[in-house]
């Protein structure tokens, strides 16, 4: 069973989808640590409620130390609103997965996170939106794409409504990507991900 760390900054609904998937046995892994860059992130409470070690860590060296101490083999960014250091991304190359609330390469990169993504998409009148799970690289939202799913959002009446719609996809494809990783079914070659 792979040891997983999940990073969160907010409510942790994607974290909850991962907790549910590990508890049901659909993911062959164990969440051994939940980390947040925000002390009051509700995701930390979700972790504690599930009996998972949860910590607020802002120092990069301490973060790397804790990951090593826990023997973490996979890091999942589940609504983590901070940029990882190059040292961390290199140390865990192709072992850090992120969920992004758009169909990359649309509405991604620096400044595009959380509700901001949906505000931009809504303002542009986007009719089809979705989510992307990708490996993390030193380029923000630039790592190889693992999974994407699209949906019709033409009926959304606000960015918040669009966000709720896209979250249903996030809660489905993030656990699936983690499941594939834990089963050894993801292969990265020439910046492309092959599902075995």
How is this structure best described in words?
- InterPro entries: Formyl_transf_N (IPR002376), Formyl_transf_N_sf (IPR036477), GART (IPR004607).
- This is Phosphoribosylglycinamide formyltransferase.
- One of its GO terms (cellular component) is cytoplasm.
- Catalyzes the transfer of a formyl group from 10-formyltetrahydrofolate to 5-phospho-ribosyl-glycinamide (GAR), producing 5-phospho-ribosyl-N-formylglycinamide (FGAR) and tetrahydrofolate.
- With 196 residues, the chain is of the alpha/beta class.
- Helices cover 35% and strands 26% of the residues.
- The protein has six helices and nine strands; from the N terminus they run βαβαβαβαβαββαββ.
- A seven-stranded mixed beta sheet has the order 3-2-1-4-5-6-7, covered by helices on one side. It has a two-stranded antiparallel sheet with strand order 8-9.
- β8 and β9 form a beta hairpin.
- α1 runs parallel beside α6 and α5 crosses α6.
Short description:
With 196 residues, the protein is α/β, with parallel strands linked by helices. It is 35% helix and 26% strand. Strand 1 (2-8), helix 1 (13-24) and strand 2 (29-36) form a beta-alpha-beta unit.
Task: Give me the secondary-structure topology.
Blueprint: E1 2-8, H1 13-24, E2 29-36, H2 42-49, E3 54-56, H3 60-69, E4 74-77, H4 86-91, E5 96-100, H5 115-123, E6 128-135, E7 145-152, H6 159-182, E8 186-189, E9 192-195
Parallel strand pairs: 1-2, 1-4, 2-3, 4-5
Antiparallel strand pairs: 5-6, 6-7, 8-9
Helix pairs in contact: 1-6, 5-6
Binding site for (6R)-10-formyltetrahydrofolate: 98
GO molecular function, one term: phosphoribosylglycinamide formyltransferase activity
Catalytic activity: N(1)-(5-phospho-beta-D-ribosyl)glycinamide + (6R)-10-formyltetrahydrofolate = N(2)-formyl-N(1)-(5-phospho-beta-D-ribosyl)glycinamide + (6S)-5,6,7,8-tetrahydrofolate + H(+)
